[in-house]
Design brief:
homodimer; 400 residues; mainly alpha; 79% helix
Amino acid sequence: MENYNFLLVIALILLSTKTFGLLSSHVHMPQVVGALLAGIILGPSCLGWVEETDFLVKASEIGVIMLMFMAGLDTDLSELKKTGLASFIIAVIGVIVPLIGGTAVYFLFFAETMDFQTILHGLFVGVVLTATSVSITVETLREMGKLSGKVGTAIVGAAVIDDILGIIVLSFMSSFSDPAASPAKAGLQILAFFIFLAVVGLVIHYVFQKMEEVVGQKRRIAIYALAFALLLSYAAETFFGVADLTGAYFAGLILCNIANLRQYIGKKVNVASYMMFSPLFFASVGIKTDLSGLTMEYIWFALALLAVAILSKIIGCGLGAKICGFTSRDCLRIGAGMVSRGEVALIVAQKGLSAGLIAATEIPAVVLVVIATTLITPLLLSIVMKDSPAELAAEQKQTA
Amino acid sequence: MENYNFLLVIALILLSTKTFGLLSSHVHMPQVVGALLAGIILGPSCLGWVEETDFLVKASEIGVIMLMFMAGLDTDLSELKKTGLASFIIAVIGVIVPLIGGTAVYFLFFAETMDFQTILHGLFVGVVLTATSVSITVETLREMGKLSGKVGTAIVGAAVIDDILGIIVLSFMSSFSDPAASPAKAGLQILAFFIFLAVVGLVIHYVFQKMEEVVGQKRRIAIYALAFALLLSYAAETFFGVADLTGAYFAGLILCNIANLRQYIGKKVNVASYMMFSPLFFASVGIKTDLSGLTMEYIWFALALLAVAILSKIIGCGLGAKICGFTSRDCLRIGAGMVSRGEVALIVAQKGLSAGLIAATEIPAVVLVVIATTLITPLLLSIVMKDSPAELAAEQKQTA
């Protein structure tokens, strides 16, 4: 007989993420916090009612792609052109500081000798801390209506560049243990990805513009656009070694300046996302791990790593933003928006595990960092994103 | 490394089902025909690009549940009360005639002796032909805007009753080979399901009515409603041995007379359905099978079974409708709407296979019946559902 448990699991996730989301918005926190808590409560760390399944992994991957695709669609291109260099500088410094910080924490706890393997191992712990997971931030900023502003665009842009930088660093590190991967190869792949994007982008942009002129706003356009986002995500991962969510973001970017389409596609994808896929994604972050296996030493290590993970992104990205002339308040906002680490950190850790660059006992610490930063980011953002009295006055002056 | 092929598969399915759907609507056929053809072309019978995966099975199950839930939401209760007895009579005769017809075809081809096992085997082939799959019909009628009319309601009502009758017959047959299943037990389970439905229905109907009064049309209501449909589908399968789609249909029925909610929920579920789940379902019907393993004898058997499958439903259900006083034209429409056999027939066949009541070599014939009836039903409906000149005149008179 077939097993219909997945129906129960999905229903539980939909009910709990929405209910906890409503509760958290009741106490003036973003709904994402509640949705993530719902996942932790349903998962093995608490009730143990729901475990990770192949279906859940795939559905939440689709959820991530939809969120990133919508983030791309929402991007204000003229704003990104203005913040492009800033995003780049923010991303670079925001990768270097956590890399150094994570390595330092590892040395502090576990380095008895300073041989090559230990240094490599320590550096890899640093690498795990580099990759920002922007999807939580994107959802939080979307809820606040701050996604397309100057700060929002800088964050999303920096996170996309950060993702690519993370992959370069990962490939570079892996090249020491795996003869197949090399820094040169990784660099070429990323270059090839951007050439591919430029060509595909021009063609697809033209096709959708023509479609919009001929048929207008019809379901087919939203369905084809979603298929395009899925294809670009697939191509990014499979042919260029770039994260699928980067592909999804660029798919949105390619379509974001076809005025009427952008809103129509975004609306349809958004419904499919909030009715099913994004609840599954947010819950699966909580379900992904079992926190019961931690020992005291690793709990301290995990807490230290967590503190460094948070501070290093705020300091690194904030510093980058400061160099680019953002106000101190906006520097704090950008730093806070880059704190969250998500599935990318987990994937990097998993790759390190299979390459022998990270120990199995260190994985729960990585998981704690991922969950805690993911929980903290919306909280931080909800605090720092509030308009200051001066900003409110300036806005009122503008609209007056 | 993770495998991202499922993204490519989903993109291919979305692109091809929509494109073939548009092509078929271009030649005045329902889009469902195109979507099903797309699945057959992608599947092992033709290109072999896509195979059945756990993800696809589960996503298409959700697609079926969404379609049936929307069918329930769309039900005109006052119309169903009027057609309730008619639906019952249509369903009963529409089960008896294919049961006899399928048994006869088996005897014609394979019965050399008339021992108990052969009779049982033949009867089981008949049982496979009894279960109508209403989801294709529902989607076709929805496209035509004929779902909530007198004929549409009679078809959906009869198909739901037919599903329950099919389960009774299946349980009855299985009781001969499996000591655990018994006709009495099956009867009690179905009775229990309806008592459960009555209690749950009253509570949930009250809860949603209150929610609508307090918060109005908010996302949470659509999400909770979908979760309820999933829960009822799960409960039907797991606790009462009733098909999940029956549960989903009743979930819709329970909410269908809360005036403002019904449309709002339907709209949101519909977007999630057409953006992802129903394309995956329709494609998976085509993907489910490999037609290359058929021998000549079994091709003839399959064709005979197919002819009987089509004619027996049209005759049986049409006869039932005639008894209930429908016009000859409407009898033909109701018969045509009941022709399609879907996943239920496949599940029944699979259960028969494990109980030794059907041979593995007969399975491709069942699959052919499922696919061909599924393809033919929308075609038949698009032909017979057209308003006759007399009906058009009557309608014009009404609106004038």
